[in-house]
Amino acid sequence: MEASWRQVAGGRGRARGRATVAPSSGNGVHHRGAGGGRGKGPVGVAGSGPSPGGAAIAASAGSSAKRSPSGSGASQTSVASELTSHRKFEEIKKANQAAAKKLVEEHFSSSSEEEGDEDFEGKRGKIVANTFTTYTTQTGPCPPCPKMVTTTCYCKKGKPIPRRCSAKEWSCQLPCGQKLLCGQHKCENPCHAGSCQPCPRVSRQKCVCGKQVAERSCASPLWHCEQVCGKTLPCGNHTCEQVCHVGACGDCPRSGKRFCPCQKSNVPTCGDSCDKVLECGIHRCSQRCHRGPCETCRQEVEKQCRCGKHTKRMPCHKPYQCETKCVKMRDCQKHQCRRKCCPGNCPPCDQNCGRTLGCRNHKCASVCHRGSCYPCPETVDVKCNCGNTKVTVPCGRERTTKPPKCKEQCSRPPTCHHTSQEKHRCHFGSCPPCHQPCQKVLEKCGHLCPAPCHDQALIKQTGRHQPTGPWEQLSEPAFIQTALPCPPCQIPIPTICLGKHEVSPLPCHAVGPYSCKRVCGRTLNCQNHTCMKECHKVTELDGSTDKNKAGPECLQCEEGCSKSRPLGCPHPCVLPCHPGECPPCVQMLRIKCHCKITSLYVGCRKITTADVNEKNLLSCCKNQCPKELPCGHRCKEMCHPGECPFNCNQKVKLRCPCKRIKKELQCNKVRENQISIECDTMCKEMKRKASEIKEAEAKAALEEEKRRQQAELEAFENRLKGRRKKNKKRDEVTVELTLWQKYKYYLLLVCAVMVAVFAWYIVHNVD
């Protein structure tokens, strides 16, 4: 039922009935459906008030009574209840109209009577329209509640905590634990609002009739199989034809008085039109009396979209929504509605505010609203430096709140090298400078520093801007805090020189290696000379008993070794002057391999001490021998001395004289047996045919040459006839020599020289 205010002001609400002519059951009378507003049917009546609606209901009741004179008492009861509800609706509508009129009469005073009737009627219509306007179309939502309340989490397991009333709902993130609808499992999601989600697990469940079992989700335990019930009905003659149902099968549909589906006759199908009201509520079914539900209304009507901006002719059963997006602002006055085909009742804004609160630390979590956001509900602790004393302030005020004064001792670690600092109260900023004795162990001598602590000494800053003239004022000197090194130690320490020639007392800070300026004088490693360097540091070798022996820092003897070399070694000793025997020769000798192609490098000591077999192995390059066998092939042996063995196994191809027949044989067998391949009859026949073809081609070429010469002769004679006799001269035919005729002697001479050079090169390389 539509709201009462939808029927006010001449039926301008959304209830717009469309009446059509519906055929009756055969008496020639047509019943017209009437709506609550302006009728748009072909025979509809426009108007408002209780009479048309009551008449329509009465007519429908009468027509139904006429259609089923022998109907049951249930249909009469439904008609009576429908009349009662319609009567109540009319009473409420009349009361609302009376209240609206009373409001209009009270709003206008006696002075408004002077205005025209038209202005009065217009204003009254506006007031009536504004009376039924919803609250959300005029004002925005209320701002979030700033009060503090103590609430618990969604699952009621967490301890109650104080929160803003606008954000009192919170989650403890513990598992929910509530039993799900399946009755077997518990919710495993973290603490959440609202009902639990369906059970995600799978279990074996029976269908509603209990005939089949299948694995299904716990969230949907009720399911129907595809089997027909098949139980015997109470009549005892028929079986239930329903598919997998719950409960009793019910009475047999073929028992008792049976009527046609349209309830007009007591035959199975009366053959008349159905005439039932379709789902659209406007048109009636035009099919013949049939079983089952009526089809959807397919009559084409002109429909208006929900927002009222477009109209379109389309089937009655299809809803029409245009694609136009609403551009009205929502209650927050920041975001547009953007709904498609919006009827005007734009929903409240569902986006989060997201504006930064006044604390500049958090953002507003409320729904988008007008005006300023409420203060941040969080609190911040302002602590002293050590953290033992604190003050709780609202979030955002920690920047302007002074830290509380603390009476505890300063617990900061000392900034100097001491393990503890002088006692003082907790404070911000740097601690006062330390005045305890330094007592540092000096790195060089190991003595303790007796000066006061100088890790944070104040020194004057240097390198600052200097005044350029007397008109500039001198700036006050600036001091910076820095650590100063410990003063040098002055205790005398007896110290020996680098070369261990003498011992002299030196200040502790100056103790270190020094030279006495004498000559070193130690015996060098060659045991023939002494070190001539100035007194220097000498590293004593472990286990050495000779204190006069030169160390690695002493000079090295630069003279060459003059000792004799081993027999057969042509190289001198590569070491400078040294004691003892010379080391073995490690230089390499360059020798040619057996094939005289590759140069090999062999140790001098190896080649001089090797026997004949070892020398042959050292002179082998490990490559294939490059020499040619008498057959013309290359030797297959590795680089070796002497003549190559004649064991050529390489395959060669033999052909007949005409080159048609071809066979592959080993080279050594061919040379031993002198095998040859003769031409067969086919070869001779092919040779004869080839000779005949050549003779024919030569004959044709000769004939062609004769014709060409005859043509040239005739052309030449024709040219001679046109010349004058005094200018006639005998034509001289110039014959040009070819390159071979010009330079054949020179080419023969060059070839002879090249052959002589090649022969000389071969003879000398072989030797």
Index terms:
10% strand; disordered N terminus; NF-X1-type zinc finger protein NFXL1; two-stranded antiparallel ribbon; RNA polymerase II transcription regulatory region sequence-specific DNA binding; 767 residues; alpha+beta; 18 strands
Strand proportion, as a percent range, falls in 5-15%
What is the percent of helical residues?
Answer: 10-25%
Q: Which class best fits the helix and strand makeup?
A: alpha+beta
The count of DSSP E runs of length 2 or more, i.e. the number of strands, is 18
Transmembrane segments: 745-763
Biased composition (Low complexity): 53-75
Family: Belongs to the NFX1 family.
Biased composition (Gly residues): 34-52
